Amino acid sequence: MRVAVLQLAYGEGAEEPVAERADRVAELVRTSGAGHDLVVLPELWSAGGFAVRDWEERSQSLTFSLPPALAPVAQAAQEIGAVVHAGSVVERTGEPGPDGRHLWNTSVVLGPDGKVVATYRKVHRFGFGGGEPRLMEAGTELVVVDLPAPADALPAGLSTCYDLRFPELYRGLVELGAQLFLVPAAWPAPRVEAWRLLLRARAIEDQCFVVACNTAGTHAGLRMGGRSAVIDPWGRVLAEAGTEQEVLSVEIDPGLVATARTDFPVLADRRL
Hints:
Elements: E1 2-7, E2 9-10, H1 18-32, E3 38-40, H2 55-58, H3 71-80, E4 83-92, E5 103-110, E6 116-121, H4 132-135, E7 144-145, E8 156-158, H5 167-175, E9 180-184, H6 192-206, E10 209-213, E11 216-219, E12 222-223, E13 229-231, E14 237-240, E15 246-251, H7 255-263
Parallel strand pairs: 1-3, 2-11, 3-4, 8-9, 9-10
Antiparallel strand pairs: 1-15, 4-5, 5-6, 7-8, 10-13, 11-12, 13-14
Helix pairs in contact: 1-3
């Protein structure tokens, strides 16, 4: 199973309008994702992970069709015949959620035909009362998706950025059959060592592959951490990006999950 992780870099505002960024990202999917089974993009690349003031303006509906930021990416996915985890968007819904808000941080997975095969609304909102908790609703459902290609693709558990700090979410995904965790993120540079450590911890404790795509560049002037990575079920780092825009291309062996869980059956010894 060939995986491409597209660690994007960008600035904000007038430096690159969202429509131009969407076209640039789609071209990157088309050129760097060709020949891969799975392509992964980072969190909120169209809206800006910390560009809080712009979220309402850049929010997009997923109700009837793909929003403008994702339509070019879907076309690229269809052209290269790959599954594309398109990162996440600020989703806008007509009906408010339980807290009366209309915005969600929603991940979208596209099939090789360019159609949506899964969505996931971020459960853990980052901001300690500001940012996401102030403006967005919290998701409530865990999502594990059977990727439509290749034939030996592993069941993928979806999570987003700050979710990484909550191991119970990942254990819940394992209970639902996950053998691969997909983690788009907008994780800032000051805390990037926590990111690197937690990725390996989630892989080791749940005996899953972890494919994590962070952002480079800046979000609202905040420097992002990069260090996107692919980790195997033993916690070995198969590939890791630097801090600038970069593409990782990694071949993973889907059978390694079953091997790890058989040779070292730690999950069978759980008591709580």
